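#structure-requests
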Amino acid sequence: MLRAIAEELRNGSILVLVHGNADPDALGCAYAIFGSFPEVTVVTPGGMDRISKVIADKLDFEVLASADPEQFDKVLVLDTSSPDQLLPLTPPQKCIVIDHHARSDRWEGSTYYCDDSKRSCAEVVYELLNAGKVKLSRNVALALLAGMLTDSGHFKYATPALLKTFGEILEVQGIEMDEVFSLTDMEQDISERISQLKGAQRLRFERLGEHLVVTSHGSAFESSVCKSMLSLGADIAFVGSQRGEEFRVSARARQDVVRMGLHLGKLLEDVGAETSNDGGGHGGAAGLVGIGDVEAILNICMSRSLDFLRRAGK
């Protein structure tokens, strides 16, 4: 299928879409398509995160905030587990989707290629370019490496396949590791550090045996605050924010809990379906967005996590 997709991308105008608050993996995949095929326009409907903005600036890569999908011959969606993650833009029913999250039935009617064994979508896009016999430019290689590096937690959660692919690109392109790190390195600013401290002030936790489940809320940097909760000792953490009627929840879990069978992407997908919202992601990192009361959503997430730990402890 990847070879057929690569051939289809060679002709006509292409609109590339990635999920809201696009991370370096999503941005790296979009840049790789932009740098490898003609007539490509990249749109990040929900904006980019801080690191992605820095990477885009270093690569001199201009992305748009919005575009009309009807003005393009093809729409390619990357690193996005459901159409709701592209709001306020609505993709056409028939598009091309390449992803690595838990498989979803939300893309019915589209050409859908999902490999959830991959830690990063950049690995899948690299396979796509290889299948299409596309020669990588140095910047495209760097963008893909940045996606692999960050989505694997700087190799903390890397698989042998990711490490093999990463090393292959380094060797073929003659890229040094410090070049990849310099593309993604970014010091936390004061506002992010304050959000982490406020998240610690507002946390509540439940203990079940030797495991701790934590919830907290704030107004920004949900993912960063979530990671800091794990650093403080949480095994599973949920951090939410409320903006008017809309909420956003970020979730993280230690890998030993994931190895017990926890899949946060599926947990939040179920919570989203139950509350008419949209959730999904990986085993150890996931997100949920929608309309409702964030405190109620966090309570549901806490309850589901404790239920999992009870079942796992039997």
